[in-house]
Write a structure and sequence with these properties.
Layout (H helix, E strand, L loop, with lengths): L19 E8 L4 E5 L5 E14 L2 E5 L3 E5 L5 E16 L14 E4 L2 H9 L13 H20 L2 E2 L2 E3 L4 H12 L7 H8 L3 H12 L3 H18 L4 H7 L5 H12 L3 H4 L1 H4 L8
Antiparallel strand pairs: 1-6, 2-6, 3-4, 3-5, 3-6, 4-9, 5-7, 7-8
Helix pairs in contact: 1-2, 3-4, 7-8
Length: 277
């Protein structure tokens, strides 16, 4: 039985007086955080380890030094791919950073400055009858505006895999997510669902605005990133994902994400974890 993480968002409620609250937690691999939603937006940042965040509209891979933004009321679940240390920020809906795609789920790059600001936030939970002291409130009044500015400058990363609402296509997509190398062609995948390849191709365009092969590439990238973050040799990653060689896989990776695997997560590998609370 997989471990289930206990939720405690009521201890970190953002308010006009403290519009940004931070929660730090260490989660073991294979931990499941059950589907839930908050009335406020949140940013989940991986200090160390890899997690997968799933919403009705897609699944998002979050390796170290990346973060996933979730708008208010979006139901989501979390699976811990490898032991992870997370810093989750809860934002008061009336105090959001300027600019940015804050009405959609998105994976963001985390700069060195943004990381430092995130880790500088107080992560003490609320306690009955005890508010924050003046020194803490003053510190937050200095940190939060700069954090908002840096977050508004953060670039987006294509680590999301969109999921359709159509039940037939959703079933096929979930099978691909479970084992993207099971079949090499859309025709073979379509036979598994009893639909024609033409029908499935039309559904992909209508539901997701992309082709099957383009969507499957995102699935492959989502599978590859945790393996790379975990230190798996590139040749093994390429083989596990159905590529004939490491160079062929690297070429796809570079074209999709703008950098080779060796550079994409180099900062993540060299980033030490913070001390657990």
């Amino acid at each position: 039985m997989l471990p289930v993480h206990t939720l405690t968002p009521h201890l970190y409620v953002p308010t006009p007086a403290r519009p940004l609250r931070a929660k730090r937690r260490f989660l073991r691999a294979d931990t499941q955080v059950v589907p839930h939603a908050h009335p406020w937006p949140q940013l989940t940042f991986s200090v160390a380890g890899v997690i997968r965040v799933v919403t009705a509209g897609g699944t998002y891979i979050v390796p170290p030094s990346r973060a996933v933004w979730l708008p208010a009321t979006v139901e989501h679940s979390i699976t811990v791919v490898e032991d992870a240390e997370l810093q989750t920020l809860y934002f008061h809906p009336g105090h959001l950073p300027a600019g940015g795609p804050w009405d959609a789920c998105v994976v963001l790059e985390v700069s060195d400055l943004l990381r430092a600001l995130v880790l500088a936030l107080d992560t003490t939970p609320d306690r009955a009858g005890m508010g924050a002291d003046d020194a803490l409130l003053h510190r937050e009044s200095l940190v939060v505006p700069l954090l908002h500015d840096e977050l508004g400058r953060a670039g987006t990363v294509r680590m999301g895999v969109p999921l359709p609402s159509d039940k037939r296509l959703r079933s096929l997509c979930e099978r691909v997510l479970q084992d993207p190398t099971r079949h090499a062609t859309l025709e073979a995948w379509a036979r598994d669902t009893g639909a024609s390849a033409r029908t499935v191709a039309r559904l992909f365009q209508r539901e997701l605005g992309t082709t099957f092969m383009q969507w499957r590439q995102q699935v492959v990238l989502a599978r590859a990133l945790p393996l790379i973050a975990g230190g798996r040799p590139l040749a093994q990653v390429a083989d596990a994902l159905g590529y004939d060689s490491a160079s062929a896989f690297s070429a796809m990776f570079r074209k999709a994400l703008g950098a080779p695997p060796s550079r994409f997560l180099v900062r993540a590998r060299n980033t030490p974890a913070v001390r657990r609370n």
